[in-house]
Amino acid sequence: MPTRTPLGLLLIVALAAACSTSTSGEDEPVTGLNPDDFPAEALAAEITTEACTLSGGTKTTCYRVTITGAPANHAVGPFCPRTIDDGPADAGVWIEDGQVWDLDGAFITGLASFYDDASWQLYDPVSGEVNVTDTQESCNAAARPDVDPAYQNYCVECSLDYIADSTITFLIPTEPVFQDTTSDFGMMGKVGVSLSGVVFDPPAPVDAILGAHTIAAFDDCGGHVNPHTGYHYHAATGCSVEVAQDDGHAPLLGYAMDGFGIYGMVDGDGSEPSDLDECRGHSDDARGYHYHVASAGENMFIGCLHGEAGSAQ
Ligand SMILES: [Zn+2]
Ligand SMILES: [Zn+2]
After folding, report:
1. DSSP string for residues in 153-216
2. Which of 102, 166, 232, 276 could cross-link with 201 by S-S, CB 3.0 to 4.6 Å?
3. ipTM score here?
4. Relative to the alpha carbon of 285, which ligand is closest?
């Protein structure tokens, strides 16, 4: 009898150890967020730590990352062209069919044939002026999935000046918790935070945008402004602050809501990793589990989260 208690205890300890290794994801090192990766200009406050509960119920410690909401290293806009004579430098881009298109005047005049839909008429055929939501009122009415019918056939843009408080606070787990299952970002959820101090947003609701015959213009950095999130990215076009990797791996661009790193699409040799899972993640010895962004034309960064998510507000 006296020997049964220690054996039972050993068994429990062994089981607990087995459980904790299986939830932390394979047997590789888990590398989480490094506060030093963010330039000071990207942050509205110093990064601190606090207790938090993740999406899967895990009680742990999170970094509190409060971004300014304005990119640390590049300008915001331009978005919509003003006239059909405007060139690529006067406006931003549109994303369609896996490609990034210059949203210049020529693109605006070609929309009816581009989408094979004669209802597209984003400009005045006499003056050549493009219909642009260039007031706060029109931005509020048009920069939403249920576009106000008054702003059908508009190029939609909003100014960051309309946003009273553009800061966003993320709680990101200091140690990512890998899960065997994956999860979505949710309609109002966030993909993560870029090192530029800008939100990585889920895919733009392109069907709703095009259904209203609107173009929710992106700037050349793949970002735009809406009244709820402020300035946010939908595509990685090479504008984000990057942290180079000394082993030839793609550079770090930011962190997902689960704390795993988000890296560029291709490694130093120009090739995209061939072993990415449905979330666009894989593991290596130096970084543990991490993600690689999709190409800019895909209206997405990563496919899903493979770890328990923190939160954003
Ligand atoms: Zn958006
Ligand atoms: Zn990788």
Report:
1. TEEE---GGG-S---EEEEEESS--EEEEEE---TT---EEETTS-EEPPPP-HHHHHHTTEEE
2. 232
3. 0.98
4. 2
